[in-house]
């Protein structure tokens, strides 16, 4: 590592030690905001930001995100969490609290295309991605040196057509208990349902089309064939249905008849890496809630 | 009116009779969200949406918008407003409450270009602009028939170079006490400071450039001259400084060396009308707060 | 017409009397540009603009558009067209020449949604759409007064479930020989193959989704259901395959989980009208070539 | 270099050995396209693409770009260039011809921000930037190791306030005769007129605002102060006037009141690197012509 590029980890812009984030889903009814904000106030927490979304005020689901500061967070948080039961029981809430200073650990899965991984590494070293990249796993050895030059462990786990289960077993061993989020950064293998159920709404994939257009393989060739005038990319949580999971973020760019498939790929690379990085950023900042195969994005 | 086009005023999608919106600005400190949401809950109000913005959690300004339903709003609101004094005093709040069913009344000022006025009329007749267009005022007679065909009063108030004060006096007479918002829909006359102070943050202008680029006259000619690759439009509240008031919304479109000034104008027209309509919509839905020549947009 | 709004038909910005446009498709091989541009020069034509596209220089199709000025165009054009046979035969060209001053005649088909029709009418009256709107045909009477107030003939041709053929017969009688282009401006009926073959690549439809996503009915409901973060609209030539014809133009806008189906429709309306108007504009300016279900757009 | 990341230089998608590009500016008059295309045809060149722009057909400037294939280009080109004099004299043309296989050599100037440099390096290693990065020059040593890990020479030339002329002298020695284009990739020093005149229209700068808004220093702080709703970046050729040279490319992104200056910088970084990379790509593909402080972009 002595003669390679050192990531210039920026110091957090503001002191994050006392910052926590809370995500809540529950059936909608009067008094939720009042109850939670009053609860937080009673416990000495100062609400920095709150976002809420009511699917249908007449009786749907209600989603809320609070960001708050609490002195001596490490010691106070367990108390606050225990006390919160009386609020959450009353409103039948599903909820979680995250400490902002406790960085999420990522495993990035790649194959041969490097642009999405590079974007994550660049944003990480620039201090824009507040996570730990715990490891990179690839079915090809190509990116090993690059990854190691960033001081990140690299696991080469080949995936052979007749031994996929074995490869997944190795992957699971590598990640279980060690990562909070798996990012498929143009990883070109199907993940099995068994693997997915270990990481519900914790695997983010980038699909190189504007879903639901062009599901499956070779989306740029499909886009060229159809003659679309705009191409896109989609970051989504992985579910059992191929390219069918909850969409987190999408973006697009204009193309023309002059753009052949290679050009679409080239243009698409920039869309893919930006879209994936945004989705990962929102996940690690606890801005995403999933309900019925759709995401609520509090950004 | 019998043989002219009837605006198809859509019914409100949901019952708005009991809906109110509250806008608050105050110095930031702990407990604001808790206090207000608890207050609303106590008074039987059900919070439908809340948005907040903390300029600087360490001690800046705090802005919040609540949208809530309250049974028997018409009778209960005065009580709620009176009671709120104890909360607002405690936190030194500036605040307002608006009933959603009480449509704001607009005066639209135009000169000879009709596209921005037409967009407002179209959105209004489509039921997308929940306001009453109380009158259109123009320094030219050209659009009189069009405006009247929508059943809207039209005032032709010529503005002569040597009698501007007299024209403004007539305008003021027409609007005072009769409108909540003045929209300058490509109105090509300068408004005097005296007029502006009657409508603080209640006059919205559309400027046909991406401000602060190309302040003043002939912005498309300036844009052509400079060779920009993107043009834009800016909706802002009118202040004494020409094109210098708080920006509400901006949008842009790509252009090329092939676009001459006429083309820039043509392309710009679509940007202008969309940007102005968005800004007006946000104002009439009470989504805008102004602080130190900048807007907070809760949309 | 005396008391209704007069469209302010702008004078053409430049004298169009001598302007012509030429569209050519042929197998690619050396010498095409040289041959055509030399031919035009010999005949006294001054090339104002040329655009070309070579699918595959190694042996695909070649497309070219010339815009040129020719003195005394009306008299000279027949000569030029006759002489061009020797060039076109040599290169196996499919070609057409259009006089810019000869405005194309449009029939606009509508049902109950008026926004796309209104956009076309506005652009037409602003002088931005250099066409004659020869008639509006609708299966509902609702827009009759509006259309007539612009001085445009309106045909109400009801389409009953058990008498579609009869309705199409009436439509064909109305348009045959009288229009150059049919614009389906949110016309909610399927057009029969028999009708379509009378107007090959001369029927433009606006589909209210980002094709090929959400083919068929209720695309905004489908988009809401899938939880997309961007919605779009697509203008395409109509072919026998539903929503499957050559795409002319697409555009999109960002949405969020907060946007319900009604909101998506509202946002979508602005995309639809802008996209359709662009596609129509390109068609009437002879900027579109179709090859194998895709468009070449020389804009 | 043995254990560092190897740029995966892709093979050119099509054989570029026989490809050349021609850029011409001249006063507009009839026969230019015919004369040049006929000349190329006579010399056995096959036109692959042509673009032209006529500022004012009635008598302005005319710009044209041809891309063509010519067998045995290396031997034939000198002949073709010599013969072209008779065409260029007749039409008073300024013109140049470039061989596509002859990659342009770049010097990239940087200070402490690495994102623009990194983008160029990634695009270069992905084979998307058909140039040789001949050297990187910086007034700080920080990026030395990174640059060398790509196998690219790095010159650390400190710029002291009292010895700017000396630093420029060293820079000129490093680049003169060795590079075709200088890219200021967030290089935070003013370049002297004397330096600029050595590289007319061959120095590209990225300015971190949507010019002409926010000329000069700290544009993100200026943008925050003004409360704009969209920020941008501008790539332009460097002239003596600060941030006043011909604009090559611009792009923008939406921001909100929530984005503080640090956030604007973070968002802006992605705009800057994409905009700069596009401008550099167009320059090295000979797609840019400059006329009266504006660019013609044939892309």
From TrEMBL, chains A, B, C, D:
EC number: 3.5.1.10
GO biological process: 'de novo' IMP biosynthetic process; one-carbon metabolic process
Entries under SUPFAM superfamilies matching the protein: ACT-like, Formyltransferase
Recorded superkingdom: Bacteria
Annotated PROSITE patterns: ACT (PS51671)
Enzyme class: hydrolase
Gene3D superfamilies listed in its UniProt record: 3.30.70.260, Formyl transferase, N-terminal domain
Annotated catalysed reactions: (6R)-10-formyltetrahydrofolate + H2O = (6S)-5,6,7,8-tetrahydrofolate + formate + H(+)
NCBIfam families per the UniProt record, alphabetical: PRK06027.1 (NF004684), PurU (TIGR00655)
Membership in a protein family: Belongs to the PurU family.
HAMAP family: PurU
Protein name, as recorded: Formyltetrahydrofolate deformylase
